[in-house]
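Entry 14. Ran structure prediction on the chain below.
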Amino acid sequence: MNTIHLPCLRGNFGEWTYFSTVMKVKDVVEHNRIITVPESQELYSKKLNEILQREYDEKRIRKIKDYILTMPERFFSSLVVAIHKGDPVWSDFDLETHFKIENEILDEENFEFIENKLGVLSLSGSEEIFVLDGQHRLLGLRSAYQENSKIGADEIAILFIVHSERLKERTRRLFTVLNRYAVKIKPAEQVILEEDDAAAILTRKLVEEYDIFSHKNALSTSVRSGGKDLNKGFSMPTSDVTSFTTLVCLYSINKNLVNYKELYKNGVVKKPNNDVLEVLWLQVKTFWDDFFELYPEFIKYIGDGEIPEKYRRDPIHGGSLLLRPEGQLLFSEIYWKFKSENRLGHFKKYVKKIDFTLEGPTWLYVFWKDPGIEISKKQLKKYVFLYLLGDRSKADQVKKELTQLYESHNRSYNDHVKPVTEL
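Output, structure tokens:
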């Protein structure tokens, strides 16, 4: 391997000295200059390395590769790597004493700090460098470079630490800590920050521009010391008895309405052009227009909390399934199925006849387990909903599963769940 010279910042954090730099992709991946932990012989035994190798997520690597090859706005956070063996050389920059910034001479303290931090790290190629944080990104880069070597000119941020075989345990601990505390962004935060995901973009537009969702009871909040925060999960907290839905639920519904899997069928989430977004927005808006036309009482609920008693929910009573994120998501799924089959008129005619009271005979044990939402049995929930709308393709299975479900609660199912199309 050729010698490379990398402009660097040198820093200290805790007991670690580190070097922050940039490298061209080709210098990272060619000849495997930077390797994964399982490819190293330093941190773990051969047997443990084989186990670590099996932990790689090939689907994730493939998505990273596709992201690199298809996204002009691609970007990565820094790879954290350990440098071992060889003869890496650090050379300080020698600044002139009267170094100026904006025509002002730096004082002695600032001058010494800057001069001590700036330099060049020279790597001969004899070093072993392995990734402590970013192994899937490294493997994605390798795979992408094999398909298109032009990305070799891209520059990525690298954070070097110095690994010593004598202090192997300390490096292993750092490898574990970096992966343990790489906290995944909360779902609600992702909806707010995401700029390529059409469902997230449309969710923000829904909250900002669809008037009903601007009211006080539209979105669930979590009470914390010092005030309220947006509820960052999908489900409604049991203490929240007034909100209509959650931001993450709106996002999940939008994924149904924009046919998310088809939109991103190659797994790469890339922002659609404005014309496509406008078509998708119309689909989302039409769904909520139809929903609130079917259930105008919920508009009043969102506005001032007024709602018929049977719809009210609290920690003990279920209220309406349509005031639960789980129910709203299923409603959107069935709605989209009928719309895709050009049977939306049938759906709108009969869905209004369904009793969505959770504690009623239709959804007991399916969605409600007295007290509390039943979060499993997703397939049965869907089949029951379709059966109620006249779809008899799963009628025998619905009857069999409901019979077993009631028996598990020491009760008899008397075939009382009937299609509303026959009422």
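The chain has a mean pLDDT of 84. Will compare against last week's run tomorrow.
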